[in-house]
Structures are given as C-alpha cells and as structure tokens.
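Final report, closing paragraph on structural work. Over the funding period we assembled a curated collection of sequence-structure pairs, and we close with a single example.
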Amino acid sequence: MTLTEISSFVLASIILAFTPGPDNIFVIVTSLGQGFKTSLKFIFGLCTGVILHTALIVLGVSTFVSQSEYGLILLKYFAVAYLLYLACKTFLHRHDEIQLKTGTKVDNYFVRGFIMNISNPKVLMFFLAFFPQFANLNQPGFQFRLLLLGVMFILVTFSVFSMIAWLSVKGTEKFINHPKFGLYINWLAIMVFVSVSLLFLLN
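Its predicted structure, as stored:
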C-alpha cells in the first residue's frame, strides 16, 4: 500500500466514524449518563468486535479470491454498488436529527459494545466492500494488508469515539445534537462514499 492509499483509507475512516449511527450515538448517551470511563468500556467492546470482523474478512476474501476466477472483479463492483447505495441512503436521511435518548443502565458495557458490533451485518458488509479495495488483492501478502487495515480502522474508531465521548462529557451535546451538525457530517459521508466508489471503479 502506498502512503496515498493509507492516507485515503484513514481519512475516509475518520469521516465515517463521525457519521451519525447507532454506535456513536450510544457512545454519546453513555457518556452523558454514565461518564467518560464507562463509555470507554463500550468503545473497547466495539473495537473488539472489529477484530472479529477483520478476521472474517481475511478468511472469507482469501477463500473467495482463490476459488473464483472473477473474484477481484466481483468484489470491486460489489464495493462500488454498496458504497453508492450508502451514499443514496445517507442523502435521503441527511436532514434527520440525531436523537439522544437516555437509556437504561447496562450491566456490562464492554459486552454490549461487542455484541452491537458483531450482530450488525451492515458492519461486515461495509468491511467486505471497503477493506479489500485498499489491500491490493492481486498482489501477494494481501492477507497481512487486510489485517493492517483492520488495525488502522480500530485505532481510528477508538480515537474518534473517545473524542466524541470526551466532548459529550464536556457539555457539547447541544452542538452534536444540532441539526446542522448531522447535516454537515452526512454531506461529508456522501462525498466520501461517492469519491471512494469512483476511485475503486477507475482503478
């Protein structure tokens, strides 16, 4: 992987981590209700789930590419179609407000984060669309590169979600809950989805 590819992957991962969704909204709610340290437990659980998803991607992609003559082409067009689908879906919901509802206390926030991550099939589909396109599957050693992307994604997720939790504790939930915040983040996500899909299509 080149420095440009790594930078593109990290930038896209950062923007996507900020995009409103169940995971980061739960981080905000937990931070407001239970404090920063408790929200970290939930974040660690999410990151542990990413490890499992990464392992599944490495095994699944390796088998698929080795057994299918057109595996690389199919993965590329699946990635383009799925990212454009996410762009369309985000566009349709770009004006949705971020709903912060204080939920009931959870017995084990680490387990909750882990289960939320691994039980969401959309996470695995996104990894399947996103990771392989940066791993140069047509070159030897792509399994290691997939693992490396997984580690980078975990670091980005942990950093961004920890920042969101810290900002929530500092009393900026009104800013995060502002309709314009979600709108701007959604537009950024749309641009990332479309740009990355075009990048995949042209390569």
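The chain has a mean pLDDT of 79. Residues 36-67 form the longest helix (32 residues). We thank the funder for supporting this effort.
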